[in-house]
Amino acid sequence: RAKEHGRNNYRFYKPEMNAQASQLLALENRLHQALERREFDVYYQPQIHINTGEIIGMEALVRWRHPELGLVSPGQFIPLAEENGLIVPIGEWVLRTACAQNKAWQNAGFSPLRVAVNLSPRQFQQPNIASRVALALEETGLDPQYLELEITETTIMQNLDFASEMLRDLQTLGVYISIDDFGTGYSSLGYLKKFPFDKLKIDQSFVRDLKDNPHDIAIISAMITLGHGLNLKVVAEGVETREQLELLRSLQSEEMQGYLFSQPLTAEDATNLLHNPLIKTNIYCSTLCIAY
Ligand code: C2E
Ligand code: MG
Ligand code: MG
Ligand code: MG
């Protein structure tokens, strides 16, 4: 490993690394039992129509309640799970849980939303991914049009021929497909026109500095135009401030997701929000100065 870093910055082995490695190992050991022990939970972050403030979807985001460490962020354990293959059963559980939750919302009489589920490279690369998704839909009774799958550019670029086949199978199923973290992967744009995407999610790194950085405005504006030109819906991720929202609106982005409207919520809190979207929506609309 040390070799990979090149001759000039040869990495010396330090005792802290040992401690870090053993922490990681402990985390990984625990991860093996986490599903059985029901330590995972799915949170839901609303996706909002920028002009109306209407909740049009929810992104499912997995959480791990570690008995000693508390909430472990997906940024920490998803890469581990991806490496050791546990992402496959974990991801399958998230998919079923999210589909079942969305069906429960529909049964409760809320107007239909789309639930978005992240698919990691390893999950996506299972040869039977489309039939697994079909099975989850069948078992939970959710109509395919209310499921969205989020896939990153990097996942797609790992094997273009395979990706092309899988995406077509998924499209045939009738599920919605988005490109997650758009702009952070390989910058080849050729794949965009070849594959059946429905939505482009602009990565939050482009939204973050939107206020004071004219270059970011230029880039995001180009991404939105590109998405629309290809007939895709465009969503901006990580919207935290009113200024960012107003800018996005002026650039004709139609959907947004971020702390400005809501953090990811437990199923219970998300249900409460759906019961009472007007309160939230009114606050939101008044920040936008929209007559509501
Ligand atoms: P992602 O799919 O790009 O999800 C968006 C992340 O941005 C989430 O982090 C969300 O909580 C966070 N976020 C949303 N709005 C804001 C905002 O306004 N400001 C900031 N600073 N952050 C915001 P989270 O939940 O920690 O997830 C991180 C990543 O882990 C996700 O990125 C996704 O790649 C992965 N992940 C999460 N859940 C799953 C899962 O069930 N399966 C798989 N395969 N990956 C998952
Ligand atoms: Mg995502
Ligand atoms: Mg993302
Ligand atoms: Mg991300």
UniProtKB/TrEMBL annotation:
Residues 24-278 form the EAL domain. This is EAL domain-containing protein. It comes from Aerosakkonema funiforme FACHB-1375. The lineage of its organism: Bacteria, Bacillati, Cyanobacteriota, Cyanophyceae, Oscillatoriophycideae. The chain holds residues 406 to 697 of 704 of the full protein.
